[in-house]
Amino acid sequence: MIAGSLERLRETLVWVVARVPFYRERFTAAGIDPAKVTAEELRRIPLLRKADLVRTQRERPPFGELLAVSREEFASLHTSPGPIFIPRIASERGGTPALVKEIEAMGVRRGDVAHVTLNYHIMPGGLRIHRAFEHFGCLVINGGVGNTEMQVQLARAYGATVYAGVPSFLRQIGIVAREQGIDLRREMPYRVAFSTAEKLTPELRAELDDMFGVELFDHIGEAQIGPVAGECRAHQGMHLSENDLFCEFLDPESGEPAAAGGVGELIASHLGPRGLPLVRYAPGDAYRLLEGDCPCGNPQPRVEFFGQVGTIRKVKGVLIHPIAAADYLARFPGTGRFQIVVEQRPGESFERATVRVGLKDAALAGAEAGRDLARRIAGGIKGALLIQMDVEVCPEDEIPAEAAGPGFARAIVTKSAA
Fold first, then answer.
1. pLDDT under 70: residue ranges of the chain
2. How many CB atoms lie within 10 A of CB 83?
3. DSSP assignment, residue 257?
4. How many domains does the chain have?
């Protein structure tokens, strides 16, 4: 699947290739005219990964070989983890148009007081969101991270109606405010919450709604490429940004375009002039591509974040990410690390998959309570992961530590045939 304007991409590529020898060499080697490039031809241009950005900036400090403008044209400088240095030119909106559309789709009103609790120190997230809310017409509190008691005081004093930041910090604000005897529904009037930079689980969404009576909206972006997608009031996935990115979604195994209903790795190209333009940038994120139209009427494709590409595995024909398994198993108290063991048994034409679930109480593994837990996990696993798997329980120390998150390096393994 692709999303974004091919005509705008061509205009951007003509501008980029004329200014950046690195990209000019890539298009020349592929025999592609940037003014006429098709989506299929674009896939002949090599991917650019985060490691490539870090490498080129280390070899040719500080900005590497991807600059499209002279230093005199810089308007501001941002930094992302790596560190990666990102110069911004004056005409570069830094994701503001895309974010403003998301803010409007969330039901935010002009004059709302937006409490931004993202990092303003070095990283671009807080400033990027701040600019968008200000541009939309909100009063913005530049809260930043930490200092929970002060954040409670600010939000209460200014009457913050919109929260923007990680959802777990909103929960912490609620806990601290309650400890101070504050009535969250009456004295902390958050109505809308812009959730980003952290996974928003259904359980956390429900807990925050119960605490504050707040409607949460999920958002995902990336430091180098900016906003990617945001949720509307239908709450049926996140709409892709149409302003700043040309997005390809490719099957993580075949490299072919992923179809609606499938999972694809995001490959993003900037639209419009940039100080440090990225063409076919692959941040390593995969998304499930949702089928059908959204009830809100927005025609932009919808996605759900699936996970990091490096740990995705195809099991019995279905792409599985350990995060999905971890989220499902977290519903069962007492479970710890897990490992999905895939094997092809002699004489059988299909794979078998078994989830070995580590129990924090080792004694339960051999008891009837442990067997009952295994049955309950097996009963819902197909609905959660889309394939049926056998379930075994064992003491947690029998599951290798490398199987645990956030890396999940050995969460899915293949067992050799006997």
1. 347-350, 416-418
2. 12
3. B
4. 1
